[in-house]
Amino acid sequence: MLKHLIGTAAATLALTALPAMAELKIGSIVELSGPGAAAGTNFRDGVKMGFEEINAAGGVLGEPVAITEYDSQTDPQVSRAMVQKAIDDGVVAITGTVFSSSTVVNMLVARQAGIPQFTGSEAPSITSMNNPYIFRTAFGSQKGIPKLTKYMAEEMGVKTVAVVWANTEFGKGGHTAFLDEAERLGFEIVADIPTEQAQTDFSADVVKLKGIQADAVFVYLTEEESARFLREVRKQGVQMPLVGDTTLTGHKVIELAGEAANGALGHVGLTPDANIPAMTAMVDRFKGQFGYTPDHNAIKGYVAAHAIKCVAELAGKADSQAIADRMHGLTLKAADCPGVLMDTSWDDSGEMSRESFFVEVQDGKQVVKAILPAN
Amino acid sequence: MTPTRIILVALGIAALVAAPLGQGNYIVYTLTSWLLFSIAAMGLNLTLGYAGQVSLAQAAFMGIGAYVTALMTLAGLPWIAAALVSVAASFVVGLLLGYPALRVQHHFLAFVTLAFNILLFLVLRNEEEVTGGSFGLVGMPRPSVLGISTDSNLNFYYFALACFLFAAFVMWWILRSPWGRAFKALRENPIRAESLGLKIRRQTLLAFAIGSAFGGLAGALMPPLVQFIEPGSFALIHSLKLLLMVVVGGAGFFFGPMLGAALVILLPELLRFTEGYYLIIYALLVIVLMVFSPNGLIGLGQKIWLGFRPKQEERRDMKKGFQL
Predict the structure, then answer these.
(1) Fold of A142-268
(2) Chain A CB contacts of B139 below 8 Å
(3) Which ipTM did the prediction report?
(4) Could you read off the pLDDT of A24-72 as tens digits, one per residue?
(5) Helix, strand, or coil here: A189?
(6) How many degrees, rounded to 5, is the angle at CA B123 between CA B93 and CA A80?
(7) How far is B274 from chain A (nearest CA, A)?
(8) Which of B125, B226, B272 sits opposite A77 (nearest CB)?
(9) pTM score
């Protein structure tokens, strides 16, 4: 504690002692407390590492980047206040938030001020609001789920499926998208089980699953709930394959669920275990710096930092409007902008697309079973 | 009111008017949030601090106000009409809930109101056709007063300040009316109050419903302020936060809830430099305060003040005060 205080005080003194120099301000608004803390901390560290690397390499257009962090407390009202604060502080761009309910509010405020926002949220509604200042760092669940269901139908031969989902904005988006796709592909839904955010006991839900027979169970919960659910499934010995999108096979979940995560299948937009050299190297550096394995949220944050840098350089100036204008319809190739790790495109609504992976958890590690093409 | 008091109140109002001038949007927005929570906490203070009933449903009443206002203003009705309906709706729901609930008191009432808060949260989330479910409602317009738009944060602050002063005046008037004195009598000694002809149940019900109506007014200010509402903003945790505001500030003191709201909203901000530790420090501070001064900060201030002026004899009959 004392160390922290002295450290902060020393840092403040050091900062005030420096002569004023032109710097590019970025606001990192994330969930550092509350239910979103697991995802938010990962995203924050990703952004931090990204910009530290950029600064070490000479900054953006020769200007060093200063990141200010704001805690949204996973509360939309606080989140809005933090966006106001970031804008008052004069940021050029905002990275975060991860939870959709906060992002929806932040978007309104950032739009009024004309500040581009690089969000980690995956709820479909975000890019359907005609907001020219919002950009995703991972594609929305409405794009991810068709990839997943296609794989389930073609490679796994699934005919009947049970659905377990979180009754939140995040969960509902995924649930609706999945049911639409399931109908299109002719899956039979044998059970539809909603759960609560911050639910701790999943025994009743798993008992329901035990009573039915399905080719697969689609699980769409946030990180901590996914881990608790997996533990309960293992405890009760349910044998059906569990398939998720992004969260179920995430590293935070594997860490929390331990043994119980083995065998879980899932589609992930980003994985530290993909055999992409740039990503493997980034993951190693991250582990060295922060002492834990980054999950997709950390990679999203890292990509956000580098996307801002590359776009500002393409636009020729580090200006909010210029960045936002240049982002629309842009494709960043990993060859030209190594920090984005994979070729990535953004469309006019801020939605993005890139290749993704179908993985299985084996011995506490994600193993890539297939690469799914961008759509 | 003594002349010194009038001068102090006038100075306080002047300070509130001057507070946001020259400040950034963030400060103005946070000050507006504080005004809003102060109104809700004032209502809870009436129920808790004056009538002595523990309610864990204040956030639910804010929710009723917020959703009624959001739906009505989204349908194009003026804010003032929506706010009146919100206050009335919260009052009526307060009566309906209070009538059966107030057969039980203290911590049993806390359980009943806790259940109500969870129930309301589930209704707000699951009645998607009306409330938008967990997607919430977005884009509520801010009202115009006499042709002046409150779209800028500064204008909206003054709008909220006017509502706050109005609410504070109504509260002050209630407290010095026979009702307010009856509420205090109930808290201090219900049996003596009843022997003097007060109808205990009717009075507590009234205090509860009026307190709820203040929650409704605070709720009505929320949609135009945040321009987004979702059921999560009215969950049980927020009722506990409001309870904390009242208890930390000083239950049963007129200015207690305002001080408490300021502290609950601002302290996490002030402690932010301690990074991950701020929640722990914050929680410790609250525990220490409750151990040494159950009457909250204002109670603590009074204790210190009396320490310096030992000659002034404390009124013995006021000593018991509020007990959680």
Answers:
(1) Rossmann fold (3.40.50)
(2) 108
(3) 0.72
(4) 999 999 998 888 888 899 999 999 999 999 999 999 998 999 999 998 8
(5) strand
(6) 95
(7) 6
(8) B226
(9) 0.77
